[in-house]
Amino acid sequence: MTDTVLCLTEATIFASCLIWACSLTFVRNKFGLQATPTTKKQIIVLRLLALVVFGRAVKISLANSAIPDIAICIMLLSINSIIIALLLCFIEKKRS
Amino acid sequence: MTPARRARLAWLHRWAGLVTGWAAFAIFFTGTLALFDTELTRWMQPETALIPQDSQLTSYAMDRAQQILLENDHAGAPPSFLLLPEPRDPTLRVLHYDGHSFVGPTLDPQTGQTIPVRQTEGGNFFFHFHYTLRIPSPWGERLVACIAFAFAAIVFSGVLLHLKRLMPDYFTLRLKASMARSLLDIHVLTGSTMLPFHIMITWTGLILTAENALPVIQLDQPSLAQADIAPQGTPHWAPQASLNLMLQQTRTRLGIAPSYVLFDDGKTTLSAIRQNSLNSNDLSATFDSQSGEFLSKTKDASQIEDAFYILNGLHLARSMGPLLRWLWFGGGLASTIMVGSGLIYYTARQKKQPAYTFHLAQRLNIALIGGLVTACLSIFVFNRLIPAFWAARSTLEVTGFFGIWAVCLLLAMTLPVNRSWRIIAGTTGMLGLAIPAIDGCTAPLAAWGTPLHLSVNSLCALTGLTAIGSLRILSGQARHD
Amino acid sequence: MGLYVTRPQAYTCRIASALLVWLALVLWGSAIVAFFPAFSQAVIPGYRVMASALAPLGMIWAFWVTHPGYALLGGGGLALSGGLVLAMQA
Question: Coiled-coil intervals in this record (chain B) (predicted)?
């Protein structure tokens, strides 16, 4: 896996995590998004989009052998989730 | 799930976690360090820093290694093996097991000259500790197997308990909230985000320890373990035929450079680790040790066998590239934090109803979590402070590790909780920050700027800063209380 | 202890059941290996991979069932049947 592909994979997975985070109620509340009749549909669309973006990241990463590349994607997904949780935690700190 | 069922699973999660948690913490922490065992050995032998990372093995160095093997054989030494240079360790090592660890000369792969390295267990210490807890065989392995099974049940019960809130709380982390809430958030966050890693590492760990935990009972046949033991004591094990020729043939036949050479039963086996494959089934070529005649090479494994080797490879992480190894390191660290935060949460949650188990758990948390980190840092300090050519320095390092850990236990059991934590965290902080300075003073100039020394020193300093940071959290908490 | 108090004996039964499930896996596994002696080198890793995956489920099952007696009975029954099958192979 070259550095470029790694960077692109990482950026795509980060984007996928971010999109999924936007579908969660507590994150939406944090950004002051009010619940509307279309909220449920928005959430479904956001989650589907997050899955599609993650699928795209897996496709980007598949360069040499499949198992190590998929393992890299899953681990990046986990680590990016922790990074986003930390970022969201500090955003709350700023607002209070 | 009914409330009664939930209460039962919570009981299992709490008590199985409390009973096995401290050992699980030690297993995860040392396992995480053992991912870089080869690199840690090199850091603990700074004399090897003079060898360039991309050194090529010369025929002269291989002849010199063969000469050492023949000398060892004639002196009646137990069979040795060779570790050939590779990017993780560019030296040529001639090692044998002395009953405690692997020892033997380290050679320059280009000139064949012996490098005067200090004797140390290096990263192998953490690897050995990870699967035995340094308890004599087979009891250590059996205990680790039992803990692995309990841990699997803990993970599963944790998932069932948290299943309903898994999605809504996925990114939840409230570090500004109360201590207990923050700890629970850290525990759940590291547990849920790293769930694929936890399941994979626990399952593959169970498979690796299954020999001890899931024995095969045979009522009317000799045990397979006994039947599998190769006949011992062949009079001469060192190869008479040229190792250089065998090496060339192996490169041609396997298509990749071998990583290690074993000598057994009149045969010489050159094996190559399949880099970046996650497959622990190494490719091998076997030769007759006397004539040098090619005998056989590894047969292609069936798909089922390959699946088994991949499961092993996922845990052993021997054939991983640096990126995946670092990601595994992150996963191991998250697992360690998950276990540690769970243990501390138990005491933070029960502050309102102090009981005997609460006090004991609080003190054991300090001794076994804080103490282990202090002891691990101290082994690096001992490595630099014990004179390089003392004969028993390797044993002294290990004794120092357990000595420091025992002192931490004594402090935690005798002093008030806050005071013992301040002393242990303060010591960890000082050790962590001192290691880069000590390394700068004692390692050769050429080693200073290498990525290896920069990474190890930075991580030690970061651990020190984290320990000092925890003192500030403790002060804030004391004011809050 | 909260609202859902469970007697300590009930937990003892469930822990014993979890251990019996583990024993059952060992006995059934050994019986299966004894049934295919020619393929023991292939069957043993397979048995260990499967048993490693099943053991946590079995241990949790002991705490999942409503009545501790059922857990004990189930674990004991599995272990006993495994022991019998293994004894018949001998």
Answer: none
